[in-house]
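Support case: user asked for a sample of complex input and structure output to validate their parser. Sending the pair below.
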Amino acid sequence: MSSSLSNRLSHIFSHLNSERLKIVVTRDLGPDVMTILYSESAKYEIVLWPGKNACDRKWLLDNVRDALALIVLVTDRIDAEVLDAAGSQLKVVSTMSVGYEHISVPDLAKRNIRLGYTPDVLTDAVADISIMLALMAGRLAKETTLFVSEGNWPTYSWAPFAFCGSQISATPSSPKRTAGFLGFGRIAQATLRRLLGFGFTHCVYTSNPFSKPSPERDSELLSSFGAPLHSLKRVSLDELASESDVLFVLTPGGDETKGLINEAFLKKMKKTAVLVNSSRGTVVDSDALAKALKEGWIWGAGLDVIAGEPNVAGDHALVREPRCVVLPHIGSATVQTRLDMATLAVQNALAALNDQDMPASVNVTL
Amino acid sequence: MSSSLSNRLSHIFSHLNSERLKIVVTRDLGPDVMTILYSESAKYEIVLWPGKNACDRKWLLDNVRDALALIVLVTDRIDAEVLDAAGSQLKVVSTMSVGYEHISVPDLAKRNIRLGYTPDVLTDAVADISIMLALMAGRLAKETTLFVSEGNWPTYSWAPFAFCGSQISATPSSPKRTAGFLGFGRIAQATLRRLLGFGFTHCVYTSNPFSKPSPERDSELLSSFGAPLHSLKRVSLDELASESDVLFVLTPGGDETKGLINEAFLKKMKKTAVLVNSSRGTVVDSDALAKALKEGWIWGAGLDVIAGEPNVAGDHALVREPRCVVLPHIGSATVQTRLDMATLAVQNALAALNDQDMPASVNVTL
């Protein structure tokens, strides 16, 4: 028996004699999901951070001791200090998020702790917000809603080209539309599926430069979208910039994608094109985008994420730009999706506690 | 030869002797479209209102005299006074709009003047704005963009259910979605086509109560939308209210539809449902809607039109309602669509001048 396993067992047996095994949860996940957890109360003690805001670090360090499972959010930094405070019996960290930048994966690996996360369930919600941002940027939603809320409508004189946007959808007189994707995973494909109803006929994408191009996969994907889509192909960044009518940034963050959307890229885009970022703020160079919008290199932009968030003040150049819609990172924020994410986070934790396959886990081997 | 025809001919011949035949245009339609008109300058004198705002009534009455064709906008009231000022040689009034409430059709009929309008070309632009409004209302776009622009993001503490919207699209755990339409013409059908990519599975609609229900037509329509749509049926107003996840008002205005969306209707809707009006403001009772939003009978609303517009001040109850997005009637406002509308208005006028079939005309027989 390995010493780590024997440590773990002795911890468990000491608990069985004294108190129930502990699941620590760093935020109230709402009545529907907490009910699932509390239904396990006979077996596990549920220890819940009582606050409404992010879990206090000191509370976590104090309460994580002897926990078997830890259910966390993006607001919790899970590092060696937390894991050491927990003790070697900790079996699983389960985060209610698709990203896990807040968790030190090597430190989990060293301790044989499993990691659960919540991909896929947010695909539809993020695809929805991507389409919403494309339409809002194209149709001048910021300028026009402000016009009404500031009380200017009564004095407005209708004119044939006033408030005219760039039309996202194809029309009988303008039947070709090209969707561009920087990153072409599940959310991008769900976004493309939505665009077909808007008459999009072509798709170009760029992918991880270290992955091999696969015309076979492209051809399979193309036929999965059916007749409305005429072509789907992997292209260079230059072609992505110049061919897209709407460009969706749906790629992971990090050093490899940092600032890929820069001045050079934006200058190659169509003047009527719209840029949407609903993945990671760092991919888009904010200064370059502000310049592009001010000087009319592109039509507009819709951002659910922005470099440096949440430290984005009201006078941030992009927040003040009339052609730029900025949302506070609400891509997955729907009641339905957040319930699915919370449920999956709980299911991941419970599966790991029962030594079963987790519905969605990250491989944390060293 | 009828006396009206002989009058007209004598007018025309007198003009041929003196000056070119006249086309009066009440607004600059932009360089692309005016070029089409000016290319007819050898045959016709083009008389254009020189202002940037709505055409002055006195200018119109003075200049319309002896015109053969009159190209107008929704800002021009075309009544007996204008038609009398024109003279009996006037062959056609062509409006750059799908609505023609600003034109006295009986007065045209009495004088055998043809009427051109611009339906269909705006279908896609209005369907786009309908989807945009549904997403904006569902995803709290007003509240969240304001949160950012007012500089609150830096102090925001992420929480699992903060800023959570009502999800428009279907998800694996919630796979049924019903689109409801009050009025089911071309724009409604184009909107439904877009919704299929969002996973909508069911469609209910109510139609002109004087038209006969046709299950055969419904069945044909259903198959035209393909496999993703499971059912499509005409229902009563009560069923429309209670079954719709998103309800689109896309019906003509006027007395027959005035206030159809009232307190009784809104009370029957789902609490998670969203209401979109992109047709005529009069169909929705504004006081009832404000009450419904304030008291949470429905999730949110997106309005491109509103009763009493453009006299809608910044302190209008619906403009101030956080869950209500209000746009200044920009449904057809895209560069592409407005160019198509202006082009069609010119084509209608030229066709009538050449005694040909007009691409899109209203039947004005008495």
